[in-house]
Design a protein that fits this description.
This is Quercetin dioxygenase-like cupin family protein. One of its GO terms (biological process) is regulation of DNA-templated transcription. GO terms for molecular function: dioxygenase activity; DNA binding. This protein has a domain at about 35-120: Sandwich (Jelly Rolls). About 0% of the residues lie in helices and about 45% in strands. It has strands at about 35-40, 45-55, 60-65, 70-80, 85-90, 95, 100-120. Strands 1, 2, 3, 4, 5, 6 and 7 form a 7-stranded antiparallel beta sheet that branches.
Length: about 140
């Protein structure tokens, strides 16, 4: 049985649910650059985003030191540039971006909308200051 909000069973266990219709991202002619959707459910172990890059936009070269990332192109095209060269990213391609790898993305002439998924980063925790630690 489900609770009134439908997110958990009566015993508190979470239930699967539909979060986002990626087909709604298939024709983003007038969208600006940025996240169209983010996974924000409490208690999750993953982070996920649907991101749109308009034509001519890019994500500059960077490294993710701690997390592997899956990237799925939902619509449009683009290119991935890594240490081993440039790779085309047509619609439907699923790419693994291993932690520590350098990469950049560039949208093609029609832009590119993609889904990224990775392990959730631990959040910052605010703790009481240890009274035995003296600051100078």
């Amino acid at each position: 049985m489900t609770s009134e909000d439908g997110d958990t069973r009566d015993d508190g266990a979470p239930l699967p649910r539909i979060l986002y219709d990626t087909s709604a991202s298939a024709a983003p002619e007038d969208l600006s650059a940025g996240a169209l959707w983010r996974l924000a459910e409490s208690g999750r172990q993953l982070d996920a985003n649907v991101v749109h890059l308009p034509a001519g936009h890019r994500v500059d070269t960077h490294r993710e030191p701690d997390l592997d990332v899956l990237l799925l192109v939902l619509s449009g095209t683009g290119t991935l540039t890594a240490d081993d060269g440039t790779h085309p990213l047509p619609t439907g391609v699923l790419t693994w971006l291993p932690h520590g790898s350098a990469r950049s993305l560039a949208a093609g002439p029609d832009g590119m909308t993609y889904l990224t998924v990775h392990r959730r980063r631990p959040g910052m925790r605010i703790q009481r200051r240890d009274p035995s630690v003296h600051r100078i």
